[in-house]
Amino acid sequence: MAGYGWNPVLRVRDGKTFVTDNGNFIADLHLGAGFDIQDVYSKLTGMLGVLEHGLFLNMCKRMIVGHSNGEVQVIENPSKISAAEGRRINDGSERSERPLRQIRPL
To answer: What number is the average pLDDT over the span 2-11?
Structure first.
């Protein structure tokens, strides 16, 4: 992993290397900016010794993001949502990113 510049760090809890219930270690990757996340996904998926990873790419239809200023944004995945469904969700707008007015910050 370090050979790809991913900066793996073994997860630590209470000052000790964390070991899962199954006796495995978890390597956290601190990628920073400028990485092709699809390339990282492909390499991790095929890497000997990697049982699982936390990259769930292109799996959801939409993501709802809350911002500190109270704005709520809906970001739709064009590969997972039909144009008709996107227009219906966004109250008739063709835009894929727009505040969702009925959600209020807590």
So the answer is: 84
Judged by DSSP in three states, 86 sits in helix
Distances (CA, A) of 70 to 21, 74, 86, 93, 102: 39, 13, 23, 21, 12
Contacts of 85 (CB under 8 A, 6+ apart): 61
As given in the structure block, the two tokens for residue 3 are: 């050979």
What's the whole-model pTM score?
A: 0.53
Strand stretches in the chain, DSSP E: 8-10, 12-13, 16-17, 27-29, 62-66, 72-76, 97-99
pLDDT in tens, 32-47: 777 888 888 889 888 8
